[in-house]
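Friendly challenge for the regulars: who can give me the structure tokens for this chain first? No prize, just bragging rights.
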Amino acid sequence: MSQVTHLYNSAGVWIAVRSGDVIYDAEGKWVGWVPWNDDEIVDTDGHYLGTIIDGTRLFRSSFHTEREYPGYPGRPEPVIETGYPGFGGSVPLPPDMTDVTL
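First reply, four minutes later:
Bragging rights claimed.
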């Protein structure tokens, strides 16, 4: 089983789960994946969704440049129930970034 990481917005609200290279929203719906060896996430259509910052925050850059189409990884298995992780604590948004809406 892949390591599970809970992802939060700037207000500290849990919005997503990363399991390996797959991203699920807080309700367990597959919303994207990490196709490259970095923290950029693309949605299920292969378009930029957001960037993981400091390992637990999911933000969207205002100045992101689209990368080459990453291909389609195939539909992943449903996420395993991870339980509610609690409040993540609020943090200021980095410059030129916004919260991701899933």
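The two ends are 25 Å apart (CA to CA). The chain has a mean pLDDT of 90. Your move, everyone else.
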